[in-house]
């Protein structure tokens, strides 16, 4: 058989909140009903998501999740981020809803991915389509990069923010003079992002300030450009 399509069906507290949020990300409503139970179907190009409303549902207790496979991680993230900036004046990086930014996932063969946590508390995990991209070459990571990779698994994949914070804080306490400056920037910006998720604006501001003191060459600055853009989003969220 061919042409089968699987569509995630996810819970939420309010289909109205879901429709409003996903419209910001470029989705349109293809079906909606109120009785006998509130239900909505959303579509963005080839991406379909369906939601059902549960009275008294708590997004904080949601286990809803799905994978979105794409050949253009960065392009989809940029589109979602642009929609957020247009609607909210910033990229949502804390609270519910929010969005993480693309990072290599150690538990997904080093390929990139990011997550959208929607108003229903569902984790929409956007990952690289492995059939559309070659596997990256395996290179032994240095300690700081290894700590970053472990923190990404804890926070972005498992949702264990406190454990990710402990990993990054331990790594930052052991910074070495020969640590890659680009990785330092990535760690500091990620630590700031996690601080925002934990509503710790003071720590987030300190981490972003430390970023400005990392010395980079012209080539390293170019390599870190997307991370600096993320730092700018975090700074805007702090204002």
Describe the structure.
By secondary structure, the chain is of the alpha+beta class. It folds into 2 domains: 9-128, Roll (2,3-Dihydroxybiphenyl 1,2-Dioxygenase, domain 1); 143-238, Alpha Horseshoe (Serine Threonine Protein Phosphatase 5, Tetratricopeptide repeat), CATH 1.25.40. It has 8 helices and 9 strands. The strands form 2 sheets. Strands 5, 6, 7, 8 and 9 form a 5-stranded mixed beta sheet that branches. It has a 4-stranded mixed beta sheet with strand order 1-4-3-2, covered by helices on one side. Strand 3 (39-44) and strand 4 (47-53) form a beta hairpin. Helix 5 (181-197) packs parallel to helix 8 and helix 6 packs antiparallel against helix 8 (225-238). This is VOC family protein.
List keywords for this structure.
alpha+beta; 9 strands; four-stranded mixed β-sheet; Serine Threonine Protein Phosphatase 5, Tetratricopeptide repeat; 19% strand; Glyas_Bleomycin-R_OHBP_Dase; five-stranded mixed β-sheet; 239 residues; 43% helix; 8 helices; 2,3-Dihydroxybiphenyl 1,2-Dioxygenase, domain 1
Question: What's the number of extended β-strand segments?
Answer: 9
The CATH homologous superfamily of the largest domain is called: 2,3-Dihydroxybiphenyl 1,2-Dioxygenase, domain 1
Structural class: alpha+beta
β-sheet strand percentage: 15-25%
Tally of helical segments: 8
N to C succession of SSEs = EHEEEEHEEEEHHHHHH
CATH class annotation of the largest domain: Alpha Beta
Nearest-integer average pLDDT: 90
Low-confidence stretches: none
Shape: globular
CATH topology of the largest domain: 2,3-Dihydroxybiphenyl 1,2-Dioxygenase, domain 1
Q: What is the distance, rounded to the nearest whole angstrom, between the alpha carbons of the first and last residues?
A: 54 Å
What proportion of the residues is helical, as a percent range? 40-55%
What can be said about the biggest beta sheet? Answer: 5 strands, mixed
Q: What's the CATH architecture of the largest domain?
A: Roll
């Amino acid at each position: 058989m061919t042409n089968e399509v699987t569509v995630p069906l996810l819970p939420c507290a309010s289909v109205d909140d879901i429709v409003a949020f996903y419209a910001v990300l470029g989705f349109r409503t293809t079906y909606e009903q109120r009785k006998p139970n509130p239900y909505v179907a959303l579509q963005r190009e080839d991406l379909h998501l369906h939601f059902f409303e549960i009275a008294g549902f708590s997004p904080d207790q949601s286990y809803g999740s799905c994978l979105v496979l794409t050949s253009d991680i960065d392009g989809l993230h940029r589109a979602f981020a642009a929609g957020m900036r247009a609607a909210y004046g910033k990229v949502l990086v804390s609270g519910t809803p929010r969005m993480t930014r693309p990072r290599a996932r150690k538990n997904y063969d080093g390929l990139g991915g990011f997550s959208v946590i929607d108003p229903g508390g569902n984790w929409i995990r956007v990952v690289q389509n492995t059939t559309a991209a070659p596997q990256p070459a395996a290179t032994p990571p240095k300690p700081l990069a290894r700590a970053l990779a472990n923190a990404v698994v804890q926070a972005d994949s498992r949702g264990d923010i406190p454990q990710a914070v402990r990993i990054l804080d331990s790594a930052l306490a052991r910074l070495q003079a020969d640590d890659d400056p680009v990785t330092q920037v990535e760690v500091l910006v990620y630590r700031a992002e996690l601080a925002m998720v934990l509503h710790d604006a003071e720590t987030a501001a300190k981490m972003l300030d430390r970023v400005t003191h990392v010395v980079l060459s012209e080539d390293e600055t170019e390599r870190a450009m997307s991370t600096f853009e993320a730092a700018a989003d975090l700074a805007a969220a702090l204002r």
